[in-house]
Design brief:
alpha/beta, five-stranded parallel β-sheet, single chain, 14 helices
């Protein structure tokens, strides 16, 4: 009976890119079982990998999620996480292959290798990587395994995780797998009271950046039922539906996506129409985390469309202040956009471009 071949493809994968996926798939085709091992070390990662990085630290759970999605159709691939322990840099009992001058700790590679061997529970025949410089390290810790190097020159996918952390992901967007891109997609939410041009601006910006936008769920809700009668329970349903469409937009986004209205604005409409503040909307608002907020002032002409109610100038001003007070209560940092439609568009572009290049 032929011996089952075992392979191991490991790393911290900060960030998972198409080069990683290519190496994994090629490795999976060469062995009966491939173990993708995601190693993690919170302190060491923060001090070394994210030292002066443009990317915030990425939780191991997120990296595991990516790999599980990427490998879900590969029956011979198994994904696990191994936590590294740290050693005293001045200790005499361990000698690491690599030393990091600005790190206060160093991972114990030997202990990590022992944990990996225990997890797999079978002799490892092949170690896969794209780094020739790891050969001495693997020869020392996995003496019975053969190190197979895949695309060392990165000709197929000229990218590395260190380059992504240094440059940021936006300029290397096409090097990210589809399942990874949504994590880094930038979100811009546009808020304001009635008839301030939110929908128009969201559509224009989405067209400008060749991406998607999320419609205001409330408007669509009342258009579908063909009624202007507002019920208390409408607002929670609108907020839930809106979040669903935001999630779908994030998956389809080309680097960035735009959102017309969110839960705080939905709360505002509940208060404006029914004079009721709903706890469910407050709790939904607490979970929001947009990269950029644009607040549209109510300084353009109010337009009747069959679904709007607050045309009086004094009421518009009152509502404008109410929405601002709610945003301030939630600690939202927003940029005020005013002027005519063209001026609003041009001013918004400045903030969006800055978001994409910062």
């Amino acid at each position: 009976m032929k011996k089952e071949t075992i392979g191991m493809f490991g790393g911290k994968f900060l960030i998972v890119h198409k080069g990683h996926v290519h190496a994994m798939r090629k490795a999976a085709a060469m062995v009966d079982k491939l173990y993708v091992i995601v190693t993690y070390n919170v302190i060491f990662e923060r001090e070394v990998y994210f030292h002066k990085s443009k990317i915030a630290p990425i939780a191991v759970e997120q990296r595991m999620r990516w790999w599980h999605e990427i490998t879900k159709e590969l029956d011979n691939v198994h994904v696990y996480a191994i936590e590294e322990t740290n050693i005293n840099k001045n200790a005499d009992t361990h000698t690491n292959v690599y030393s990091y001058a600005h790190a206060n700790v160093e991972p114990d590679w030997e202990s990590c290798a022992d944990s990996i061997k225990t997890l797999i529970g079978k002799p490892i025949d092949f170690i896969f990587s794209s780094e020739p410089r790891y050969s001495d390290y693997f020869d020392d810790l996995y003496p019975k395994a053969k190190h197979i190097i895949i695309d060392a020159d990165r000709q197929l996918y000229p990218i590395s995780a260190s380059q992504l952390r240094h440059d940021g992901v936006i300029q290397h967007w096409d090097r990210l797998p589809d399942v990874v891109q949504p994590y880094f997609a930038k979100s811009v939410v546009i808020v304001g009271t009635e008839s301030t041009g939110k929908t128009t601006l969201a559509k224009d910006l989405a067209h400008r950046y060749n991406t998607c936008y999320v419609e205001e769920a409330g408007r669509k809700f009342y258009e579908q039922i063909n009624a202007e009668i507002v019920l208390l329970e409408d607002f929670a349903q609108i907020a839930y539906e809106h979040k669903y469409h935001e999630r779908q937009a994030k998956k389809a986004a080309n680097k960035i996506y735009f959102v017309d209205t969110e839960a705080i604005t939905t709360q505002f409409f509940s208060m404006a129409y029914l004079d009721v503040r709903q706890s469910v909307l407050d709790e939904t608002a607490k979970l929001q985390d947009y990269d950029l907020w644009l607040f549209l002032e109510a300084d353009i002409e109010w337009v009747a469309d069959g679904l709007r109610s607050f045309s009086d100038t004094q009421v518009r001003d009152k509502n404008n202040q109410l929405l601002k007070s709610l945003l301030n209560e939630f600690g939202v940092r927003y940029h005020i956009i005013s002027g005519n439609y063209d001026e609003r568009y041009k001013e918004s572009l400045k903030y969006v471009d800055k978001l994409l290049t910062q």
